[in-house]
Amino acid sequence: MKLENKSVIVTGSAGGIGEAIARLFAKEGANIILADCNEEGVKKVADELNKLRRNSAIALKVDVSKKEDTDRMIEVTLEKFGSLDILVNNAGIMDGFEPIGDISDAKWQKIMDVNVLGVMRSIRRAIPIFKAQKSGIIINIASLGGLYGARAGVAYTTSKHALVGLTKNTAFMYAKENIRCNAIAPGGVATNIATSMGDINQFGMAKTQPGLALSPSFGQPEDIATVALFLASAESNFVNGAVLTADGGWSAY
Questions:
Q1: What is the pLDDT of residues 59-104, one digit of tens each?
Q2: Residues 6+ apart with CB under 8 A from 20
Q3: Known Pfam families for this protein (predicted)?
């Protein structure tokens, strides 16, 4: 098994890409903290994983936009598993395709708090642990929206561009401490992120439609999970600061 006895945190793991990553990592022998604001959903996933490997998964209700929640997430991991080896920052929310002329302060701040600030805090808390043990792996789930300007509204696009920058800077800063930080940029994937969108801005949606229509197909969460496993395993030891696109060829158009 590629991740035998590794201690892993996966945020946003009650469904979609996060759940798929947690299930695959558990199959590969990892002990996992499943963190999500959907307490019922994340408990269900943990219960199913524990039927396969007893006491290998722990569900936590975590709002990544709250510092006390991300701090507790790290603390519980150390208490239960004794270490933290891999941090997967998957939790994220979508905007409603609002262009900058229409975005509200509240919407902007909410998306930044979840998609950027929560990730920064989680990594910041994990870095001293990784430095002390001279190893650590960080995987951030970005988006094609972090590489292009016409995949979402201004808030989501900006947040994912920020996540790409955070990934690259962290990788550079801590490379000599044997800490690797990479990101995955998925294209269209069948997940429940649309439930976080709220009201759709018709102007913004119309502007992005031509680009969205170029996507050759929708991926499944499991397609992204396999990329995450590569980044979490020894097979990617020389991969650091990379943003791996997984979009079925969408960005090639």
A1: 999 999 999 999 999 999 999 999 999 999 999 999 999 999 999 9
A2: 220, 221, 222, 224, 225
A3: adh_short_C2
pLDDT tens digits, residue range 37-57?
Answer: 999 999 999 999 999 888 799
Residue 46 lies in a domain: yes
Q: How many Cα atoms occupy the beta-carbon half-sphere of 208 within 13 Å?
A: 23
Beta strands in 75-162 (DSSP E): 86-89, 136-141
Long-range pairs, 100-107, Cβ under 8 A, ≥24: 100/154, 102/201, 102/203, 102/204, 103/153, 103/154, 103/155, 107/155, 107/198
Q: Give the chain's count of helices (H) and strands (E).
A: 8, 7
pLDDT at 77: 98
Q: What is the pTM of this model?
A: 0.95
Q: How far is CA 167 from each of CA 113, 123, 174, rounded to the nearest angstrom?
A: 17, 10, 11
CATH number at residue 115: 3.40.50.720
Question: Has residue 168 been placed in a domain?
Answer: yes
